[in-house]
Specification:
Mean pLDDT of chain B: 85
Radius of gyration of chain B: 18 Å
Mean pLDDT of chain A: 86
Helix content of chain B: 25-40%
Radius of gyration of chain A: 18 Å
Oligomer: heterodimer
Number of helices of chain A: 4
Largest sheet of chain B: 9 strands, antiparallel
Strand order of the largest sheet of chain A: 1-5-4-3-2-6-7-9
Number of helices of chain B: 5
Shape of chain B: globular
Structural class of chain A: alpha+beta
Number of strands of chain A: 9
Order of helices and strands of chain B: EHEHEEEHEEEEHH
Low-confidence stretches of chain B: 53-57, 207-212
Largest interface: A-B, 25 and 30 residues
Number of strands of chain B: 9
Shape of chain A: globular
Distance between the termini of chain A: 42 Å
Largest sheet of chain A: 8 strands, antiparallel, barrel
Chain lengths: 208, 212
């Protein structure tokens, strides 16, 4: 295997910066079954995996214009699983030819007292939601097809309502910085899902 | 992890830190303890940067980020009298990202390094506490592996501690406090180390020229 390309971001503290490569799309509820069927055929052979997660987004406001965002996610159907803390950086404004959205990401598994700890650090919860759906894998690619539910009463995950009549589809890879061939592989896989779903690079800034 | 007691061993009269550590380890070896590698526990201090204080209207808090070689893939983050978070080592990467909000007090990195001894069900770690180049004290950690409830084995631990610490045997650690029947965990050990490091930081510099 040839040496990986020189990383674009410096190695800090002895660790290599990991980047998340992302493509997103959506399907209406009634098209879900055909998409799941095709994914089951294309992806790695494994027991169909579903998930029910509760995600809370925390902000730390400082003197800087933009607050620091951290996402805390816990599994509601797999007791004993660690909580997942995630930091996502700003999308990299690389060349337009890059097929996927690329941003720095740091994933940390933590103990259950994560929310108390974040509050102690000064973070405040901005919003929360429940995500329910299916998970597929193909090599290092992760495909999630899930529905977002709004939580009606803060803190109460029992009373939720669906945000829309569709499912969000995300194709993502977490890899070391500089591995641009990853986005080519992702684009090729996304081609195979057309016309059921169109996965594309969606810049979050353009939506706001 | 079993119930653990972390305490400080004062430096012997007229001796250096290193000599006192040697006295202790020799006593342990005579007891019949077996040397089993080394250990390291370190602690970095972070305080909330001035820029975030204004919006919260509260005094800056100190956050300690610690590592323990007994759990090489974990990172412990704690506040004094606050929650202790156990995370994986990517937490250190996150602290680098949070540089603007949490400043590390570089000079206050403190660590203890030494040898691990196994004596039947007891795991004893005697370490030299250092801040930068200077040795500031001695830490002694004793773990009784088979038991995880503090109230069930404190008297046994105390007896063992007395057998080699003699008059320097500590009292029951504060973490046992009101939770005698709760299951003991690694976070409790890290809280004990944090308290020990804070105590040593406040003490006057040990009047010897440090370890060579």
């Amino acid at each position: 295997m040839e040496a990986p390309p020189v990383t674009m971001m410096p190695v800090t503290g002895g660790t290599i910066n990991m980047m998340e490569y992302l493509l997103q799309g959506s399907v209406l509820d009634h098209s879900l079954e055909s998409l799941i069927h095709r994914l089951r055929g294309l992806c790695d052979n494994m027991e169909p995996e579903t998930f029910l997660d509760h995600e809370m987004v925390f902000l730390l406001k400082g003197q800087q214009a933009s607050p620091f965002v951290l996402r805390a996610r816990r599994s509601m159907d797999k007791p004993g699983a660690p909580w997942h803390l995630r930091y996502l950086g700003q999308p990299e404004m690389g060349d337009k030819n890059r097929h996927a959205l690329v941003r720095n990401c740091v994933d940390i598994a933590t103990s259950e007292n994560l929310t108390d700890f974040l509050m102690e650090m000064g973070f405040r919860m901005d919003h929360e939601f429940v995500a329910k759906g299916h998970l597929f894998r193909k090599g290092i690619m992760k495909i999630m097809v899930y529905k977002i539910f709004r939580i009606l009463v803060p803190g109460n995950t029992e009373s939720t309502e669906a945000l829309s009549l569709s499912y969000l589809v995300e194709l993502s890879v977490v890899a070391a910085a500089g591995q641009d061939m990853v986005s080519d592989d992702m684009r090729n896989f996304a081609e195979q899902l057309k016309p059921l779903v169109h996965l594309e690079k969606i810049d979050p800034k353009r939506l706001m | 992890m079993g119930v653990t007691c972390v305490s400080q061993m004062p430096v012997a009269e007229g001796k250096s830190v290193q000599q006192t550590v040697e006295l202790l380890t020799r006593k342990l070896e005579m007891l019949g303890a077996e040397k089993q590698g080394t250990f390291c526990v370190d602690c970095e201090t972070y305080h909330t940067a001035a820029s975030t204080l204004g919006s919260q209207g509260q005094a800056g808090k100190l956050m300690y980020v610690m590592h323990n070689s007994e759990y090489p893939l974990s990172c412990f983050a704690l506040f004094e009298n606050g929650p202790c978070l156990i995370a994986d080592t990517n937490f250190d990467v996150l602290m680098v990202k949070l540089k603007g909000f949490f400043q590390s007090a570089k000079a206050s990195k403190i660590e203890t390094r030494g040898t691990r001894y196994q004596y039947c069900d007891f795991l004893v770690k005697v370490g030299t506490v250092t801040m930068g180049p200077s040795a500031r004290g001695i830490s002694v950690e004793v773990e009784y592996g088979p038991c995880v409830i503090a109230s069930d084995c404190w008297s046994l631990l105390l007896e063992f501690l007395q057998s080699f610490l003699g008059s320097h045997t500590p009292g029951a650690p504060a973490v046992f406090g009101n939770r005698h029947d709760a299951v003991y965990g690694p976070a409790d050990t890290m809280v004990q180390y944090m308290e020990l490091f804070n105590k040593i930081r406040k003490q006057q510099q040990v009047p010897v020229a440090g370890i060579r």
